[in-house]
Design a protein that fits this description.
about 750 residues, alpha+beta, 7-stranded mixed sheet, 4-stranded antiparallel sheet, 23 helices, elongated
Amino acid sequence: HGQSNPTFLLSLRGARGRELRKLVLRKQPQGKLLPRAHAVDREHRAQAALSRGSDVPVARQLAYCADREVAGAPFYVMEHVDGTVFLDRSLPSLAPEQRGAVYASLARCLASIHSADVEAMGMVDYGRADAYCARTLATWKRQYLRDWGSDPMPEMVRLAAWLERNAPPGASARMPKPALIHGDYRLDNVIFGLGARGSAPEALAVLDWELSTLGDPMADLAYLCMTLYHAPPGEVPQPGRGRLAPPEGAPAEAELVAQYCRLRGVAAPDERAWTYYLALACYRMAAICAGVHARSKRGNASAANAEMVGLAGKAYAAYALGLIDSVPPRKWYQSERSAALLARVKAFMDEHVYPAEKEFMAEDAARVGEARWRPFPLMEELKAKARAAGLWNLFMPSDTRDLIAPGIREAVDCGPGLTNLEYAPLSEAMGACPFAPEVFNCSAPDTGNMETLARYGTHEQQERWLRPLLEGKIRSCFAMTEPAVASSDATNMQAVCAHDAATDQLVLSGRKWWASGALDPRCKLAIFMGREADAEGDAARGKAAREPHRRHSMVLVPLPHPRVKMLRPMTVFGYDDAPHGHAEVVFDEVRVPVDSVLLGRGRGFEIAQGRLGPGRLHHCMRVVGLGERSLAMLIERGAQRKAFGRSLLALSADKIADARVQLDMARMVVLSAAAELDQHGNKRARGPLAIAKVAAPRAAISAIDAAIQVFGGCGVSQDAHLAYFYAGARTLRLADGPDEVHLQTIAKVEAAKHKARL
């Protein structure tokens, strides 16, 4: 079906004509050839090396002959492989599960090709291992301009310029380990065995190695995806059409790419990098088509439809430009790795998290009594997928990660070590779905507790508590707020931490509430903050009172504990947030070893300031994401409904505009606070953090309220997420300090700036 090198079936027969063996002879075409074209010697060498030193399925090579006197041109002979070649990507003759098996086999074979040990196979001289994409672009650009330099297509000029400017870092550098690439890997270049009826097809041999060389594996993968999801062989891509849907049973493009990357143990390319590889494949095809067109105009093209094929080049270039234009540019505040991770988080949310919302809601509605506090099995499944995808513990900054005991760092995925500014867009994306942060092990209060243990815990405390938290095996709570006092002023705290000298134990007593997560059966740790029993001093014994901010300690309490009593679940505007929940808890003379204290007795406020800075910022990031989700819901609903002869979208223009203004301002404030926190630490960043803590919930509440208005009665019902969104965002004006406290902080910081002038 269009092979460039003539291929013959050799049937070896016995004396009575009985077929004994089938072989295949493949040779160069006769006549004048372009330099390095139709290199059957390279085909033979690649397949022979792979058959000896890899698990890549190829036909067994028998002999190569360079003597033109034998067959008129160089040729090689290989074993015949009996099987099926599929020409149609939709695989209409197969059942859905068989189609999935074919696509999976394609990914598996390609991963095997790229994982083959080039050095062990003696192939290190098979091509250059540096800047494959740049060299490929230069080659095809040179060929295109040779044909059309006097009258180039504007699309080709623009596409080449974009490719030259936007090569991913790995595409323009020498690869750390050279990889063999096929160069023309697609469905119809693989022979499949079908086996028994209904069994899963499996690749038996990869064919047509003429374009194989050393290069960038992602270019091979992108070319395969072009033929499966964008422009199948024989078809011309349609600019603006978008990706083709996979046939029933086959994976979508992102899923196939993820399968391949998992098989190779490499990170999936981010959206921008993947678009580069697809665009490069389009440029190559456009240049080939343009070359055919040029030869037709010169009168030396062999194909009758050469001019039509040539015109397809413009379609390929335009399609690539459409792909490029669909990729949002990297924001000014994003690093390359942050942008790459954000694309992966969003793809994971689209593929796994959002589709799970209905199941979570249905299960939550069906649960009653004690069953409400059982963890959702689906959550554990999603966590396992996120961890396998390398989207785990994304919140942990590098300076904190470096404080974790080496044994834990080596054994557990402690995250990529992002700065707060790099993490901000990721946290915003997760915040669009209330349960999503837990999927990535990035939910409160665990994130703050993990950072606390990393910064202030001993190696023993980290091994006992931090390791399982980082692994997502347990959860935790933070017991600070008290019902009997105004807890906005933490010095009011009445819970007591006393030292029993006789047993050398700490005795903890007091009533706490809003201990978020304490009701979850996976919660195995409470961080208790209490007032030292001797904080007021003892005049009779000559012991002075402690300073107000040196009177409290933080203590690690294992759960469940016989003296820790869960009084009741607290509700937030009627929501119990099960199975996470918020508990009112009594610590009834809870005894723990003295080495359960964090950092040292009387240093609770010191820890709290270190803990609450990043924690407050994470809340702000997430709530902006919640506001963005609400605005998107508003627009979608408004476009679907009409009132008084006009769409609700048109009637809500002021609400949409105001929400956009508020959310964009809040995001800038949050990013500014993140940058300050990264550069100057908690103390210097307290002003920007306070501004973010006030601005972000207000902006989100405004957007959610606007969406509720457009949804009408549905907006406050259980049928939409908005009522729950509102409850969470409104509560954030109290959590981690009420607005009034943060406004006081902002005023103090501003006054201090101008104090010298007053």
